[in-house]
Amino acid sequence: xxxxxxxxxxxxxxxxxxxxxxxxxxxxxxxxxxxxxxxxxxxxxxxxxxxxxxxxxxxxxxxxxxxxxxxxxxxxxxxxxxxxxxxxxxxxxxxxxxxxxxxxxxxxxxxxxxxxxxxxxxxxxxxxxxxxxxxxxxxxxxxxxxxxxxxxxxxxxxxxxxxxxxxxxxxxxxxxxxxxxxxxxxxxxxxxxxxxxxxxxxxxxxxxxxxxxxxxxxxxxxxxxxxxxxxxxxxxxxxxxxxxxxxxxxxxxxxxxxxxxxxxxxxxxxxxxxxxxxxxxxxxxxxxxxxxxxxxxxxxxxxxxxxxxxxxxxxxxxxxxxxx
Length: 324
Hints:
The protein is 70% helix and 2% strand. It has helices at residues 3-30, 56-73, 79-105, 113-132, 155-173, 179-197, 201-221, 230-248, 254-257, 259-278, 288-294, 299-322, and strands at residues 139-141, 148-150. The mean pLDDT is 93.
């Protein structure tokens, strides 16, 4: 896959998102698909109430269309492409239902945690069986080494944990304008480069299609956001990113590439554990970005700092693999 092809993939998904968003955002507004804001969240977020949500449908369309068309033109539509689209669409559908229920009932709770978990597990198992139809090996590779761990039939449990975990981690991170759009675009680009190193053209096309679409979406999602991606977008991105790490053979490396998602999730876990065990909170509020908000940081400062952290982590993860 040439640099020119990579740029074409990025450009097409970017422009598909950029030209679709101005038509979809007013439609979401007319349909009163506005975001409900948690009362217990930062008070500064109350002004965002009513901002159109479910914007994930915009870039999901661009990603899937670009992946299919460019994959076909480059003779790179494979079973792995199908798995990636299945996870992206499946997790996105769960998020779409969740967002829809929030809007219909005018509340900040859509599907219950159990309902979402069941849906995520079903899609993860379906993805595992689709992988089994090919030459997929049930192995976890440790980064910066030649060591690999054979899990056999237990790999399905790891896959469920990985997809569900990162899907929810990205969802937790989606709390500031442009935060997930920027950090996820960096993460997908990183795995796109790793796919190119492995000569996995089908996977690289998907990864860069996501990157381009998110950069296009960022024009409307950056502060002050004109639209939110909602669970429709965040759940889809998290699941697809985890699946991408599996197909590229760098599962564990996702902990570094997706460091922001990991830290945001850890902040929630530590906060809950600390409060239950000691009655005291470690952070002013979790997830982590809210802690910085209540510490006086501006939204832009937090987002730019997290983007930079994500970029540095991605470079640390990818550069050694490229130079091998």
